[in-house]
Design brief:
- The chain is built from 8 helices and 17 strands.
- It is α/β, with parallel strands linked by helices.
- The strands form 5 sheets. It has an 8-stranded mixed beta sheet with strand order 4-1-5-7-8-9-12-13, with helices on both faces. The protein has a 3-stranded parallel beta sheet with strand order 15-16-17, with helices on both faces. A two-stranded antiparallel sheet has the order 2-3.
- The longest helix is centred in the first third of the chain and has 14 residues.
- The protein is globular and about 65 Å long.
- The protein starts with a strand and ends in an 11-residue tail after the last helix.
């Protein structure tokens, strides 16, 4: 029999309707009550970590979740974390960096509709998540809408539909259909049984999405607020260098000691800084490339890297190293 720990954090799955709209209130014990009668496959115990809308999730919340998994790691065979959908992808990636070398599944799920509603996806999702948490695999996964997605590849594409999440630039791990798990890509257990737990993070990271008309002067205002900046460029990595050129300001940021990371605002296939002239105005050796990583993974990975060191070259090495399948492109 598998022993599973359910950790609840709030979100839509635990929400009730109040005067100002939905808000999380349902306790962990009530969520467990919606599971089918437990049988010889598993036993679920629960613990309420927090009760927040995931919009209010902060990097410090990721640490609290990671600490709970680490604290109970030797006592359970798998973990299920219920979470709001809006920032689920960020949490999923963050846990992938804080909790490495996992030999057990850590599964994140939630819903688009509260669990106590008659028509809801919550009961299916929580059942699927618990079922997958019984598998002999290791890693962080999101289970939603019958799909199992590796933690660093989760992106929310839809605000209301039950199939809210997709796996970007990486295949789905599996599909869950009632008690059946059909693998599309097998994830093997860690060779070492000891978990690598490192929750140190630096939340001083900014995400800047470029648009036509972005003012270079903006960079002057963020110099003293952040230690790392992720720039979502155009296309394969282009930044404007004619009118409203951003090139000089990016150089100034880097020379002031701020880590600058380039990615693309295009969802699939990643950046390729060597392709166009507009991608070559800032030398590759002074910025950090992200290949085909998702923004939702880049942000927590940079926070985690800056939490380990202030040395630019080490930060760059961490960001350029594949962790939990977050990078696959060699370009």
């Amino acid at each position: 029999m598998k022993k599973i720990l359910l950790l609840t954090t709030g979100g839509t799955i635990a929400s009730v309707l109040g005067k100002e709209g939905l808000y999380p209130e349902i306790p962990a014990e009530e969520i467990v009550s919606y599971l089918p009668e437990q049988y010889d496959r598993y036993k679920v115990e629960c613990k309420n970590l927090m009760n927040v809308d995931s919009t209010n999730m902060q990097p410090e919340s990721w640490v609290k979740i990671a600490e709970a998994v680490n604290e109970h790691y030797d006592m359970y065979d798998g973990f299920v974390i219920t979470h709001g959908t809006d920032t689920m992808a960020y949490t999923s990636a963050a846990l992938s960096y804080m909790l490495q070398n996992l030999a057990k599944p850590v599964v994140i799920t939630g819903s688009q509709i509260p669990i106590h509603y008659k028509r809801t996806d919550a009961r299916t999702n929580i059942n699927d998540a618990v079922r997958f948490a019984c598998e002999d695999v290791g890693g962080v996964f999101t289970v939603f809408g019958g799909l199992v997605i590796i933690g660093t590849r989760v992106v929310k594409l839809r605000t209301k539909s039950y199939d809210a999440f997709e796996s970007i630039n990486f295949p789905y791990i599996a599909r869950v259909n009632h008690s059946e798990v059909s693998y599309q890509r097998k994830i093997h257990l860690a060779k070492e049984k000891k978990i690598k737990f490192n929750p140190s993070i630096c939340p001083d990271v900014l995400l800047l999405k470029l648009h036509p008309g972005t003012k270079p002067e903006l960079f002057d205002y963020i110099k003293n607020l952040y230690k790392g900046i992720v720039i979502e460029t155009f296309g394969t990595g282009g930044i404007p260098f004619q009118e409203r050129s951003l090139v000089q300001k990016i150089h100034e940021l880097i020379h002031s000691g701020i880590t600058v990371v380039f990615t693309t605002q295009v969802l699939e296939e990643g950046e390729d800084l060597g392709l166009y002239e507009v991608s070559r105005k800032v030398p590759e050796d002074i910025i950090i490339r992200t290949r085909d990583m998702n923004t939702e993974a880049i942000i927590p990975k940079l926070m985690w890297a800056l939490g380990q060191t202030n040395e630019p070259e080490i930060v760059k090495k961490i960001m350029s190293t594949t962790i939990a399948y977050d990078i696959t492109s060699a370009k």
